[in-house]
């Protein structure tokens, strides 16, 4: 007597699984198509300048003021900022009038950029244990060196801050998200 490979109950479960998987795929495909269609209709400018954030360049302060001005009076107050930004951008109000001007935001962004550069320089110097201006495998360790050696343009088994900056810029040019800079570690 030939016994069936699966019992009736198992066959029923398999059918339900296959049918459920098929229906789920159909729903996902339909919602993806609907999303794609809706995103092409009424295309507007992106809300955030992601390229600016990725490149650490300041966003356009005038656009930022216009976007965040909740009461529409043409002025951006600290209270109108999102909660996360209030503490950080309150420092930008240098004249303490409670209003953030485009000039104040631009100056604040430049100050932060200089601050970031100084911190990167400090981190590089901390890793450069012998103070020769280069990072070597001995100074950073095997695991980190695997990432750093890609920046070693002249293949002398040591990486300068300039080589790290050039490698970072090349990754950005290639369109890859830079993540954290190797010098920052």
Q: What is the compact description of this entry?
A:
The chain is mostly helical and 185 residues long. Helix content is 57%, strand content 4%. The radius of gyration is 27 Å and the shape is flat.
Strand residues, percent:
under 5%
Category from helices, strands and their pairing = mainly alpha
Give the radius of gyration.
27 Å
Percent in helix: 55-70%
Q: What is the global morphology? A: flat
- What is the strand tally? 4
Q: Record the strand order, biggest sheet.
A: 1-2
Order of helices and strands: HHHEHEHEHHEH
Largest sheet: 2 strands, antiparallel
The N- and C-terminal alpha carbons lie at a distance of 71 Å
Instruction: Count helical runs.
Output: 8
Stretches where pLDDT falls below 50 for ≥5 residues?
40-46, 178-185
Summarize model confidence as the mean pLDDT. Answer: 79
Keywords for this entry:
185 residues, mainly alpha, two-stranded antiparallel ribbon, 4 strands, disordered C terminus
Describe this structure in words.
The protein has about 180 residues and is mainly alpha-helical. Helix content is about 55%, strand content about 5%. It contains eight helices and four strands. It has helices spanning about 10-40, 50-55, 60-70, 85-90, 100-125, 135-140, 140-150, 160-175; strands spanning about 75, 100, 135, 160. Strands 1-2 form a two-stranded antiparallel sheet. The chain is flat, with a radius of gyration of 27 Å. The model is unreliable at about 40-45 and about 180-185 (pLDDT under 50).
